[in-house]
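User: Can you predict the 3D structure of RNA polymerase factor sigma-54? Sequence below.
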Amino acid sequence: MRAELLQEQRLKLSLTKELTQAIELLQYSAVELQSFLYEQSLENPFLEIRDYRLKRNFRNLSDKEKQQWIENMSTYSETLSSYLTAQLPALSLSEHEERIVHYMIACLDEDGYLRVNIEEIAERFAISKQEAEKALQIIQSLEPAGVGARNLQECLYLQLKRLPYRDEFAEQIIQHHFSLFVEKAWKTLAKQLGVDIALLQRVWDLIRTLEPRPGIHYTKERPHFIVPDIIVQRSEEGDWRIFYNEDVHPELIWNRGYEQKISSCQDGQVHAFVKDKYRQFLWLAKSLEQRKQTLLNIMHVIVDKQKQCFETGFAALKPLTMREVAEELGIHESTVSRAVKNKYVQAPFGTVELRRFFSSAVSSVYMDEDAASSVKVKMFIKQLIEQENKQQPLSDQKLADLLHEQYGVVISRRTVAKYREQLHIPSSAKRKQYVGK
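Assistant: Sure. Here are the predicted structure tokens for RNA polymerase factor sigma-54:
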């Protein structure tokens, strides 16, 4: 063998640092974009950020505009831990008990359940298991009822014990026959207990009034503000107008005064530094403009395809895929996917995520009608289940047949089951009621 040194030319596609940055900018949400730009201003001494929000006078907005902006802010609710802690002074706990209870409160998850073993808590504070159980009972005596439970069974049982009128039979069912009851093996359970199945239905109706997630009405997070990137409004002439939300996107400014001061220095490295930072500034400004145009172009196609949806709401949503939008704009499907990620649109019916306007198509037997979107099919399924006879609930196959007969939608039983689960609707066996209302 002989070693040789060869030279050849090859064409190779590679992502530059600037192109990677442009792709990242496209998928940033409005809040993430602001954070990124302020980070860039720290790295580039010539780059200044002018916040458009400083120009906006809230008092000059109309009442309708104020409502549209206010509705974007999530409501503030007290945290579960602070609510529980506020109830402790009335219990006159010892310092040691209070320390254990505070620790347990900190261990509760967002649903109000204790996910730490009692044995671990006992070991941590060098106490007996009985003492740890006593501390847990203190938490379980607080409001809301059911808080501090270690599982759903205990949560429901705690709430039953706190009802103004105790139901001993319901407590017995939850405490000793929980598995059979929740799986709706009621015929077996009724036979074991020697009771009428209607009595189990009464307990079921009572259990449905309880809260399986007692901590759900509280939050562990700070309130969020949803910032719409695009605003869609209807003009007096009846056509739809699309605006890029300039109010929440900072403006980039090149500090000419500082540039002239630095450039007065006759150092070549300084001039190279200024030139490099100016090139970065231009590329960043170009990437922001490209992001803006991409979002506007995508939104124009969506509004054109989903006019009825903007007029009447999501019940009229038509099938639309990202590939269709990409083909119409002559861009790649991944570009559309990045552009709509974590973006929001302020529409006449509220502020919604941009992705919600995309929906897959479901075939229809009526060739002269548009194919139904998966969102619309889910609405059909929900309506059919709401109207069903609860003593003889519709099976997934029966739902598929009714969709075909009433709406001309052809989907399989398995697809119906998938959509039903996405709607968080239980199966027909678990929806069945043995006593009519």
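The first helix runs from residue 17 to 27. Residues 371-430 form a domain with the Arc Repressor Mutant, subunit A fold (CATH 1.10.10).
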